[in-house]
Amino acid sequence: MTRSRRDVTALVMVRHGQSTFNAARRFQGCSDQAELTPLGRATAAACLPTLRSHPFDVILVSPLQRARQTADEIVRVIRGTAAAVPPVLVEPLLREIDIPQWEGLEFTAIRTLFPEQFRCWEASPHLLEVPVGPNVAGSETVRPVGRLFEQCRSFLRSLQERYAGQRVLAVTHAGTIRALTATALGSPQDRFGLLQQSNGGVSALHFGARGRGPAEVRCLNRTSDATGLPKVKGARRGLRLVLNTGGREWPNVPPLVVPGSAVSVEHLLRGSGTGVEESEELVTAGASIREEQLREFLSGLFGLAPDAAARFHPDPGAFTVLHYAGSGKLPVLQAMNAGRRVWNSAPRTARTPTARRERTTLGLASVVQTSQA
């Protein structure tokens, strides 16, 4: 039976629009120098339909101006619909991860100035340690990811105490959304880097009426661009796998074809390789799988027990997108329940994409590589 609205505490999280630091590829953290670009403002305004039509009881906003400007754009669009604007409150517990030594630096400079730390950040961000205060030898160190998880636990306690049974919109940051999702699910810190969060991307968690109990995942990184796949972060290589549980296919994304072999998408979901993920170019392919398979895979990806699979709710009319950047590595979850309005009404056989294409054979897999980013 479907629960009524007041039986659920809904936490809907949106990342701020593109900032000047995003555009310049600079690390932001808790720096408050970055502002929204014109594209960032447009993305913020466009994300409202992605948030669905249900009114929010309150909008909580990170104190950093890129988040406050995003909230301003959302409120402006709400006013244009003649709907009531909920209270907008600044919430310090929604600020971004804090790595002061890196703030404002281009990522190429961080790689040069802090090579060991940056390698740790890319491979195991939860293990990164940075000095407290001045960057001098012998300083006390902290783990920024661990500190962010503590901050998110405090926010979720506040959610339980102050907003039980309400629908809350949190305008915040990529790292904060990843940590909030992991904390709400009980996922270990070593899975922090496995969830992608795009500018303007929406993620939604549901809790019991009192805000307690295990979180249920309704969507992750759903964007307002219903015609495009999430942008790949980092190297554009390996396999981007577009999964659906309803027999749908994303337009211009061909099926993952493995002729004459038992190797299939199930091998990827079990952690076995197919050879495609080793491609030096980005290969995009789709597959249809059973809902329980996807639920179990997502539960395992977040490091949860098998009985947590029921907490994930894949929509048969939407898509889950994974990026495999090499064998032996866990994939990045680019989105869950993305592109709700994109699918065709019936399964189709592979056909020539309208995008630029190149037939590529990689080991056991033959796929069509499209130019979608």
What does this structure look like?
The chain has helices at 20-24, 38-46, 65-80, 107-113, 115-123, 144-162, 174-185, 265-269, 291-301; strands spanning 8-15, 58-61, 88-90, 130-131, 141-142, 167-172, 202-208, 216-222, 238-244, 282-288, 319-324, 332-338, 357-362, 365-370. The chain is an alpha/beta fold and 373 residues long. Strand 11 and strand 12 form a beta hairpin. Helix 2 packs across helix 3, helix 4 crosses helix 5 (115-123) and helix 6 (144-162) crosses helix 7 (174-185). It starts with 7 loop residues before the first strand and ends with a strand. 44% of the residues are buried. Mean pLDDT is 83; it is low at 259-263 and 341-373.
Low-confidence spans: 259-263, 341-373
Spatial sequence of strands, sheet with the most strands: 3-2-6-1-7-8
Number of helices: 9
Total domain units:
2
Secondary-structure element string: EHHEHEHHEEHEHEEEHEHEEEE
How does the overall form come out from the CA principal axes?
globular
Broad CATH class of the largest domain? Alpha Beta
Helix/strand structural class: alpha/beta
Query: Rg to the nearest angstrom?
Result: 21 Å
> Which architecture of the largest domain would the CATH scheme give at its second level?
3-Layer(aba) Sandwich
Q: What share of residues are in beta strands?
A: 15-25%
Oligomer: single chain
* Major sheet description: 6 strands, mixed
CATH topology of the largest domain: Rossmann fold
CATH superfamily of the largest domain: Phosphoglycerate mutase-like
Number of strands: 14
- State the end-to-end CA separation: 40 Å
Mean pLDDT reading: 83
How helix-rich are the residues, as a percent range?
10-25%
